[in-house]
Amino acid sequence: MIQIFTEPLAYGFMQRGMLAAVMVGILCAVVGCYVVLRGMAYLGDAISHAILPGVAIAYVLKGDILVGALVAAILVALAIGFFTQRGNIKEDTAIGILFAATLSLGIAIISTIKTYALDLTHILFGNVLGASDTDLVLIAILSVIVLVTLLALYKELLVVSFDPVLAATLRLPTNLLINILLILIALAVVISLQTVGVGLVAAMLVTPAATANLLTRRLPTMMLIAGMLGALASIIGLYLSYYLNIASGAVIVLTTTVFFFIAYVFAPARGIFWNLRHRPPHAAPTR
Amino acid sequence: MNHIPAHLQIQDLDVRYDNNPRLALDNVSFSVPEGTRVAIVGPNGAGKSTLFKAIVGLLPRERGSISIHNGAANTLQECVAYVPQREQVDWRFPVNVQDVVMMGRYGSLGWFKRPAKKDRLAVQHALAQMNIENLARASIGELSGGQQQRVFLARALAQDPRILLMDEPFTGVDVTTQEATLNLLDQLGAQGVTLMVSTHDLNLAASRFERVLLLNRRLVAYGAPAQVLTTDNLLRAFGAHAMFVEGKMIVDDCCPGDEHLLLGESPALETLER
To answer: In whole angstroms, what is the distance from residue B153 CA to residue A39 CA?
Structure first.
């Protein structure tokens, strides 16, 4: 029985893959709490697609693909912040324009490269089992940077997200804090390139955090639960991928989705099941 | 009074929304000595909320200056607390009452510091003062409108302010909350906190405040209630919205959600009778 769990881990690539997937799962889920609470799901998606031209340019210049992705993601995150904070373009419009533009640019560059086909699928859908030791170190360093920043700026990010009026009264640099948050999201997106790929990053940011939001009513607990769900989904996903021979990124995302629906149906006080059983005689809506 | 330095001084203040040709506040100057209770009265659109927002720095000034304790307005910000008319927060956000009140301490805590025992005590004290200790662990989405307001008043208390700005705290709240708010005003007044409260209730302005500031984009009158709330001044401030019914003055703000305001037979208001 225990062999089911130990057997895959006999392979070095599975060990590295597991480590990478767990780190990315935790990081995305914790950062994702802000993505969910601030309603930035679309933004996460946009940043993930904006990586494509960065990766393509890095490939053409024979540079490091992760560095290319990092630069592109941060640039587009700050561009979205710039357009929105000037106030004359709505956020979703700014995202819509940049999202399509960067994706097109990425495809345009890639279409000029003949030998790219294989690597491109890895970028789009991830290749967690191809994680090298260098990748692992990079993922670990970036994860620590992002999590420490989130922890250090906990109060400030909380106020800016919950009550912009108080943030202004306390003279917090709101735009700077939001730009920092955008960069943290960009970093999380870039390192998840390895495990779930560009196409599915948004799910890793949003789904575990949304699930946690159904299960708790405090931000620290929400981050903790989201992180655990992200890690758990990555582990389960990788085992399923090993035994059923399915693309790992897809299984990981599907596992988080299953978690979400379980919570949606059975969550205490908020799930469908609870509401059916505990429907109050007179539903009193709060203001 | 002259030897007390002006705690809050507003000089030649102009505020404009975007590119609106009309100023929202036009050449407003006044000063509030430390520990004074000021009611701000004026019709809808008079710039009462705008004045508060300009003081806390939510709106840019086009002209003029705001100084607190003779320093520029942005230097001593943690001593100013502001309770807006309607909180623009996300009520589904995963924070409980205690968390929200603790945010009042963030200004004095500063960057990277975690709340200490002193801060937790201040929060507990503020909750007790607003009589909502039993709600400490309730999430904010579960509260009634009045309870929500008391939470934000508790947060303002936890800020330990020297100046407290409250925008329409008596509009659209239940009697308990109104009573709690009035008690709070008395207590803070006794502690020497400077209070500026906007209200539609002329009675309340006359009976509970030392000074009244009558505003209609420009400053109409400012001083002791009996001197400010005269028929002439009210007509100048409220114009067509002021009416006389059976010898008493009624100011009517016709916008939805606002109560019709009737001046009662308070002795302080004899000046208003014809």
So the answer is: 28
Which residues of chain B approach chain A closer than 8 Å at the C-beta? Answer: 56-58, 74, 77-78, 80-82, 84, 87-90, 93-96, 99-100, 103, 106-107, 109, 111-112, 139, 141-145, 148, 155
B6-88+161-272 CATH, one of 3.40.50.300, 3.40.50.12780, 3.40.50.920, 3.40.640.10: 3.40.50.300
For B246, other C-beta atoms within 10 Å of its C-beta total: 7
Write down the domain spans for chain B.
6-88+161-272
pLDDT tens series, chain B, 274 aa = 334 454 788 989 999 887 788 888 999 999 998 889 999 998 888 899 999 999 888 888 889 988 887 666 555 555 888 998 877 788 889 999 999 999 999 988 888 888 989 999 999 999 998 889 999 999 998 898 888 889 999 999 998 888 999 998 888 888 888 888 888 888 888 888 999 999 988 888 888 899 999 999 999 999 999 888 888 888 888 876 666 555 556 665 544 333 344 443 333 343 343 3
Ramachandran bin of B17, using left for φ above 0, alpha for ψ from -120 to 50, beta for the remaining angles: beta
Least CB-CB distance to B144: which of A152, A221, A286? A286
Number of residues that this document lists for chain B? 274
Query: Which CATH fold would you assign to the domain A3-209?
Result: ABC transporter involved in vitamin B12 uptake, BtuC (1.10.3470)
Residues from chain B contacting residue A222 (CB–CB below 8 Å): 94
Are B95 and A158 in contact (CB < 8 Å)?
A: yes
Chain B interface, mutation test: which of A155, A159, A225, most B Cβ atoms within 10 Å?
A155
Cα–Cα distance measured from residue B251 to residue B264, given in angstroms and rounded to the nearest whole number: 12
Which residue of B77, B81, B143 is in closest CB contact with A286? B143
For tokens 């801060």, the residue is: B119
Interface probe for A, chosen from B93, B142, B151 (most Cβ of A below 10 Å), is: B93
